[in-house]
Write a structure and sequence with these properties.
By secondary structure, the chain is an alpha+beta fold. It is about 50% helix and about 15% strand. It contains 4 helices and 4 strands. Strands 1-2-3-4 form a 4-stranded mixed β-sheet. A hairpin with a 5-residue loop joins strand 3 and strand 4.
Length: about 110
């Protein structure tokens, strides 16, 4: 019986550690934004710091994610997407509102 409890404890510990390391796994195997793309994201996030956070979808370099902090005009989002497309090639922009609901884009293509 003691061995079974030890096994369950070890299994639970492995589960907790693996769930906590999911972000590290993604960063290790999918990479982080670097170079000109990092400069682009940093620039957009500085200009729109009170309105949105722009990031690349982990493991999907052709997709951008904008998490809105407040309402923003569609033309501003269009401008960000067009600027990124001109610099780095085609991308799809997903926009999430303050409640994390997808309000622009479709994840069906992923």
């Amino acid at each position: 019986m003691m061995a079974f409890k030890s096994f369950l404890f070890l299994l639970g510990l492995i589960l907790v550690v693996s769930l906590n390391s999911c972000d590290a796994f993604t960063k290790t195997f999918c990479g982080q934004v670097q170079g000109r793309q990092k400069v682009f994201f940093d620039s957009v996030n500085t200009v729109y710091k009170d309105r949105l956070v722009l990031s690349q979808v982990p493991c999907y370099p052709g997709y951008l994610r904008a998490d809105l902090k407040t309402n923003i005009e569609s033309k501003d989002l269009d401008s960000i997407e067009v600027a990124y497309n001109r610099l780095f090639g085609f991308t799809e922009l997903f926009v999430y509102d303050q409640d994390k609901n997808l309000i622009r884009g479709s994840t069906g293509s992923m």
